[in-house]
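Bumping with the actual sequence this time:
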Amino acid sequence: MVIGTSLLALLAARAASRPAVAGGLARLLPGNWRGLVLPLALLVLLEVLVRLGWIPAHQLPAPSQIGQTLWWLAAGGELWGHIGVSLARVTAGFVIGAALAVLIGAWVGLSRRAESYLEPTFQALRAIPSLAWVPLLLLWLGIDETPKVVLIALGAFFPVYLALLAGIRNVDRKLVEVGRLHRLSAVELTRRILLPAALPSLFTGLRGALSLSWMFLVAAELIAATRGLGYLLSDGRETSRPDLVIAAILLLAVLGKLSDGLLKSIEARALHWRDSFAGGEG
């Protein structure tokens, strides 16, 4: 009787553990693979349509031809040079723009007077298209790396600034009052209460700024550039090579996704204390 009871208990324990194990595997495997289903299906569909002649190859090359173009660029070493230059420009512009946005956004968020002076000008500057800055930056800063980094920094500044400002202004007033009761200085109040509470909004702004940095990179490299992924786009257009244009677009998409994934992992670690809704399985 004791053996039978022990056996039933063991089977019940195993049955109870199986859903947890299955759930863990479901979280590890399908979540990673589901995002690849649509891109792979589109690649296979395009390959078939181009090979059957339903899509002209001179307008939209087959994915296999684009892969061959990427292979030739990588084998010759040219590809890594373009990627390295673009990565350096995006990193420098993003860091500069985001850092300035955090400093100015925190200042404006803390001071109504600063907001009244700066906010109208910033809103007007935010409405200027990226390409409109290019001629002015070329006239002021020449055609070297400086105008490209400045243009990317402009693109990264406003999403971070707006997100941080909104995050600070949405902090619970009671938290601020508690900090003032403990006689925290403005710097301590910002560091210990306002910025931690505004971190979710800040990371949202950072991810938006990173995507805009890649967009502004293309605007910067399409004009007055001899290296970079934007230059590959321009070179493919001028030489009538759609495979080169699409290859550059795919590289921008992959690099943008990888950089966003890196920032998302940093966000998950920085905000691990949140008990937020992660979405259902449906």
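The tokens above came from a reply further down the thread. DSSP finds eleven helices and no strands in the chain.
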